[in-house]
Amino acid sequence: MNSIKSHSYEVYLEELAEASLRQHVAKSNYSKIFVLVDENTKKYCLPLLQEKMRDEVPVHGIFEIESGEENKHIQTCMLVWEWLSDQGADRKSLLINLGGGVLTDLGGFVASTFKRGIDFINIPTTLLSMVDASVGGKTGVDLGVLKNQIGVINQPQMVLVIPEFLATLDQRQRTSGFAEMLKHGLIKDEAYWKSLREIDDYGNAATIQKSISIKNEVVTEDPTEQNIRKILNFGHTLGHAIESYFLENSNKKSLLHGEAIAVGMILEGYLSHKLTGLSGLSLQEIKETFLKYFHKVEFDQEDITAIVELLKYDKKNSHGDINFVLLQSIGRAVTDIKVPENLFAESFAYYKES
Fold first, then answer.
1. pTM passes above 0.70
2. Of 30, 88, 246, 325, which is least surrounded by CB within 10 A?
């Protein structure tokens, strides 16, 4: 399976990933190699990685952080920075990030800022991180419950996608990643969207490669998110606010990222129908598809008010305006759309309809 070239690095899949890692380490003369894991990837993924690396990738140290979005903050970075310093890491060291999007985002940020930047390699272990965090160079952490407020865009040396890791996930985690794949079809490729609606094995290598390729095409055209890259945020303006709200409320069951943006894509699909020409038939298709894979989330009026209030912290905002990515049709997205506030309540009402 061919690699996917993204700016200064490549995404390697399956057997090519293993060979590329060994070749890169052999020629790079790193002073020390470190691996960042969480308790899950240490138990389920690290042994497989060590088996694949054999003795050709000598690891100096392994550091474990706690999994979960609630640990994606600067205090966790402090622990990793201090550990790297204690281990004698220098500017010729390498950090391998083995985990889902939380870990690769945080690990990339740690590497990008330690001693003004050391090399890092991302090995995503969840479907979500394979199809989303694998491309684009976004690194960072949350500020309280506000997602990804602190960070930099910095590219890894390479990304290694090994689908065998997906066998370690439960069904809920796999389905969470599927939401981003569906998004790629909605914003860029109607035929891909239609194929995904009928698929059972959405964790196969060919489908993963297709999603990575779609995101990579967008990112390559606009690496710093000035124009077209913004379309990748479809469903995320309301979706991130929903995710943050459920994370900060102890009486609510936290939502996985894909679960939150699945709701966001239905809501923003409704806004698209009202504002940018998405047909009623396409809107119904979007809603039916996401509710086929994701349980409906309950919202009361207090929830909705608080979620709308969180929108003002969205990273895409400019000059006090909340900017949305909406759809003109399936496969065609538009950016920087201002939404009248009364439509938020309407969109939630549409979502709650049976």
1. yes
2. 88
